[in-house]
Amino acid sequence: MDSKELIARRVAMELVDNTLVNLGIGLPTLVANYVPRGIHVFFQSENGIIGFGAPPPEGMEDVYLTDAGGAFVSALPGAVAFDSAMSFALIRGGHLAMTVLGGLQVDQRGHLANWMVPGLIVPGMGGAMDLVSGARRVVVAMNHMQKNTSKIVTELTLPATSARPVSLIVTELAVIEPTSAGLVLRETAPGVAVADVIRATAAALIVPDSVPAMILA
Amino acid sequence: MRTAIDPATAAAMVPDGATVMIGGFMGVGSPHRIIDALVARDARDLTIIANDTARRGVGIGKLISAGCVSRAIVSHIGTNPETQKKMLAGEILVDLVPQGTLAERVRAAGAGLGGVLTRTGVGTLVAEGKTVLSVGGEDFLLELALGADVALLAARTADYSGNLAYALTARNFNPLMALAAKLVIAEPDEIVPVGVLPPDAVHTPGVVVHHLLQRLRSV
Predict the structure, then answer these.
(1) A105 — contact with chain B (CB < 8 Å)?
(2) What is the ipTM of this complex?
(3) I want to staple B116 with a disulfide (CB 3.0 to 4.6 A). Which of A197, B73, B96, B104 is the partner?
(4) What is the rounded CA–CA span in Å between residue B70 and residue B94?
């Protein structure tokens, strides 16, 4: 299992039955492949749909049915399409149970940076600022390190996406929960020791007496 | 009744230097034939208000490549490296606006509101230079209404009253922009006789639409 699949399968365990969920572009999209049995969630894409499904067979695509990355998707029974104002009213208005987003950095207070590296890459925030400010739970799904540098840092060096802390960080090494006391190590990945996580993390971690292994969907 | 015009006529109604709203999300729901006509007439110095600049060679990406755009007010340029390159080189001014805030600023302009209050962006770079208002003890950013000279829309179906119906995720910013510009031109896939579109199926009332683009092929 590669690290992306591991992260996606752990994040999938956070899905709650009968709720509205938004998955960011890239790694977060993989979560949809591992929805646990017995759980039904409605996936929203911010370009204006609730209830999209896997890409249709080749040749059966609808040019007007795409996800936020512009990729072709299908519409599941009960799907609904709407404009961008409705889409973000759902996001900001407390109607979105959970969003899963990628990250460039998360700091000790749980602040996320994921929309620009000044002077280098400036993709823009798209819907990320609204999602982090408005979703009831914000889960960051990302690799723990970038080129041997920890992405979990004491203080952000990149521009923040929101002043609101995220709810949970899931990496290929660990599950970490930002709290008012600091970052708490909740789980380790299979075969990963607590010491490995501490070594790979630039911020201080609070380590409880018991740190169970991740359960994967 | 609305007149149906050809793409060159539509493009001629968009003067150089104009502020232009363009519907679409990654090119889905963008008025592609009007965009091609703007490139063909070599439009200059446009300020574009849109969700994104799509990809190179697609939708608004064509306007970027052809040098028609001097400023872009958008939420995302990550899918078009050319926009990023031109921005970093100082050839295009890019104002990045959170997507939900962009939608509400456009909606506000079309709805006669001065702006909206949002939590989005509080305590970030987006808040720089903006008024923060406290409502019920919580901070909100004052985001001002954003209107335009022209709105260029795409729809699946129109009738000759100008009524518009959009398709699935091609709706996105189109119905918001339809109310937010002085001149509104819609590019429908098909134009049906008045009475064919059921009143409940109309997303944008025709009273706000000034011109329709001719269908690609006449019957």
Answers:
(1) no
(2) 0.96
(3) B104
(4) 9
